[in-house]
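Board notes (copied after class):
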Amino acid sequence: MKLLHSGKVRDLYLDGDELIMVASDRVSIYDVVLPTPIPDKGKVLTQLSLWWFDRLADLVPHHVVSATDVPAEFAGRAVRCRRLEMLPVECIARGYLAGLGLEEYRKHGTVSGVPLPDGLVEGSKLPEPIFTPTTKAAAGEHDEFMTFDDVVAAVGADTATRLRELTLAVYTRGAETAAANGIIVADTKLEFGVDPGGGIVLADEVLTPDSSRFWPADSWEPGRRQYAFDKQFLREWSQGLDWDRTPPGPEIPPDVVAATRARYVEAYERITGRNWQ
């Protein structure tokens, strides 16, 4: 195999005409990879993505060829997948106001050019889910919000419309599924590619704690930060440090590592109904 790309979390290898995508235990916040791994994180992301791909296949094709035909050293945290021409848009759906979406709303009353009602606060449920795409920034840079017209300019009107439809459909299915197990999906980020026939294919990861905000429904309360089954916990821990959010990132203490791992595992267990082994 040939290593094609090493990202913040995933490594991508070429194996013949297919790819092997390996999820590591690396963790990043504010686009900086921290030096301390989170045990089992790569496996949780991979296994949860596979669970979701199965449940979304009637909405959109996905890139997975096999979860077992991978090198033994990557077992459980790798998938064999199709090569695609990846689209240059981070496709984000938001059903609740948080994170950078909240910051953008406070500045402009909109997110990605989508106007929102006055008076919303942190954690507010939106009147309906919205499509809030961003750019795919190069390493060391930050994603920037895009309007729908920006997406049209980047990929064309038909593809932009389809990306919006698919992103909102995946989010809606994911939110409804997770809600049945007491989890709110506040927002999620998706990536899509195009196959040789021109079809749009769901790729990378889907509805994981790295790409989504998961909140327990029984403690949701607008107007404050929510308990999160995702790396928001690490972001909040880092805010108490003397760190300017540039490399190198700080070492994570053992108790914070354990708490972060526990949240990833709990997200998997609560959403899937399966015990983590």
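Comment from the instructor: The longest strand covers residues 183-194. The chain is about 30% helix and 25% strand.
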